[in-house]
Amino acid sequence: MGEVLQKPAVLVPKTLEELHSALRAGANVIGGGVGLMSRAMPPELAELNVDLSAMGLGAVEAHAAGAMVPLSRLAATDLARHRAVAEALEVTATPALRRLITVGGVLGARQVRADLVPALAVHDAQVTVLRADAPVPVRIPVLDLWDVDVPFAVLSIELGEAGPSRYRRVAGHQPIAPSVASVAVRRRAGGWSVCVGAAMTRPQLVDPRRIPPVAAFRTDHRGSAEYRHHLVGVLVRDLMTEIEEPT
């Protein structure tokens, strides 16, 4: 007889204590499980997984949202002073999927191609997370998620400082194709905040006057490092011009 495959266990915690216990046991957070339907960004199922749908993380406040807030609901809030966030949400997946995909699911997946991350980063967005090695939630900059080396769960997001901003990406021929390179730009007091997504191994804030060298960019079947480096330079210049000279 062949080997009997065991179904992965899925926990549905209702309290921070229950969630922390699951994280300490090495559980993998799958949010509300929408990613299970995705071929583009499927979650990695472990023996023990956590569904956050019973944690009460669905609230939306002024420029803040719980982890279980769907992208479409966040997009429906007042994002006039966080335009890059609005533009990133608009090009994420399809309208139908945006009604299902959650903020916490996007951030917790730490996908380098995620449109939302660079847009949040230029606004100095803060994420509240619960880590396996600490029983109390902590707030960290959104890009610091890539430095977390223990199981964790995203609980909420604060959109950060308002200001003139834009987001743009270059993708494939299909509108919902993953980004080859993406850039978010915000004008801030005394200068600019610029974040590059998709083109490197992780989203990264950069100095617009000194784009990182070609060696910092990645190469895959969708584009070379040289191509991505060129795209980022063009996108940065175009977005800064659009913010300085709005039509």
UniProtKB/TrEMBL annotation:
InterPro entries in alphabetical order: CO_DH_flav_C_dom_sf (IPR036683), Diverse_Substr_Oxidored (IPR051312), FAD-bd_PCMH (IPR016166), FAD-bd_PCMH-like_sf (IPR036318), FAD-bd_PCMH_sub2 (IPR016169), Mopterin_DH_FAD-bd (IPR002346)
PROSITE patterns according to UniProt: FAD_PCMH
Domain of life the protein comes from: Bacteria
Single GO molecular function: oxidoreductase activity
Species per Swiss-Prot/TrEMBL record: Paractinoplanes atraurantiacus
Matches recorded under Gene3D superfamilies: 3.30.465.10
Domain FAD-binding PCMH-type: from-to ranges: 3-164
Key words, A-Z: FAD, Flavoprotein, Oxidoreductase
Protein name: CO or xanthine dehydrogenase, FAD-binding subunit
